[in-house]
Design a protein that fits this description.
Layout: E1 6-9, H1 16-24, H2 33-40, E2 45-50, E3 53-63, E4 67-75, H3 84-96, E5 100-105, H4 110-114, E6 119-130, E7 141-143, H5 149-156, H6 165-171, E8 179-186, E9 189-198, E10 203-210, H7 213-224, E11 231-237, H8 241-249, E12 253-263, E13 274-276
Parallel strand pairs: 4-5, 10-11
Antiparallel strand pairs: 1-2, 2-3, 3-4, 5-12, 6-11, 6-12, 7-8, 8-9, 9-10, 10-13
Length: 283
């Protein structure tokens, strides 16, 4: 027997391992997040084991050559405070190399990440409530499908520091049974889009990107209207005052917060048009 932690890549068939651990931690991932997460970077998910026994997990997703994101950093409770986290952390950080790296941290962990060169830039606030919305009868609202994907991909590049086409194909998959997406299209131009997906508890809306608060409101109603009477969750960037007002308007209440942190130069993103981030785990 050995007490030394061995770190290895997770395979595609094992991607549910960190998502199950996330569910056990109360992070409430989507029912079909695995394929989309894995497609973002098939070599960016790691597991730490001792004698083949699961100890911890982490993701270090590479987006191109200049950006990466740390997530799903979880250790099983019986192995905590034993130093095992350091090895898998450094493995993921080494994998990401000299890229600008982002992560979403709970408040009590920000000081720890700061020791590794990360700086807090803004808060994300998780808002939760029961959907009372009806889907608007608006001809500018178009269901996401194959025909509109290239426009959604191009629009999304304004809101993310790197290309993420493979991830978006899975995230916006029109054939999924647990998610729906809509674009706001006027005169043939995409001016916003959003996705709602079923989670272990309720439904998360993310991303929700829009040129104006009015478009975001229309998209929110289109998405939340799909699950009227059920819990919906929206992760709002605090610097976007209109996003906070949107959540308040539809009686969503703050329940949880994270701090977006970066090592390296923080990307300049249009936060005033970001009404809901895609996912804490992948940025």
């Amino acid at each position: 027997m050995t007490t030394e932690l061995q770190v290895r890549q997770l395979t595609e068939n094992e991607i549910q391992i960190p998502l199950t651990m996330a569910m056990e931690e109360g992070w409430n991932p989507g029912l079909e997040d695995g394929p989309a997460f894995f497609s973002a970077d098939p070599t960016g998910y790691f597991v730490g084991e001792i004698d083949g026994k699961l100890v911890n997990v982490i993701s270090g997703v590479r987006y191109g050559t200049g950006y990466g994101f740390i997530g799903l950093y979880i250790c099983k409770r019986e192995f905590r405070t034993k130093g095992y986290g350091h090895k898998i952390w450094h493995h993921a950080m080494s994998y990401l190399g000299a890229r600008v790296i982002g992560l979403d941290a709970v408040n009590e962990q920000t000081a720890s990440y700061a020791e590794h060169g990360f700086k807090s830039i803004y808060r994300n606030i998780r808002q939760i409530g029961t959907s009372t919305c009806d889907t608007p009868m608006d001809l500018r609202i178009a269901p996401l499908g194959r025909g509109v994907f290239s426009s959604i991909r191009d629009y999304d590049q304004r809101f993310f520091p790197a290309e993420r086409e493979d991830f978006l194909k899975r995230w916006t998959d029109p054939m999924s049974e647990t998610r729906r997406g809509f674009a706001f299209v006027e005169d043939g131009i995409v001016m916003g889009y959003g996705v709602i997906r079923q989670c272990h508890e309720g439904f998360k809306i993310g991303p929700l990107f829009a040129d104006t608060p009015e478009i975001a409101d229309t998209l929110f109603r289109a998405l939340a209207g799909q699950v009227k009477g059920q819990f919906v969750i929206l992760d709002t960037p605090e610097p976007n005052a209109a996003a906070l007002l949107l959540a308040e308007k539809y009686e969503l209440s703050p329940e949880f917060e994270t701090f977006r942190m970066y090592r390296g130069k923080a990307p300049e993103l249009p936060l005033d048009q970001m009404f809901g981030i895609t996912t804490f785990e992948l940025g």
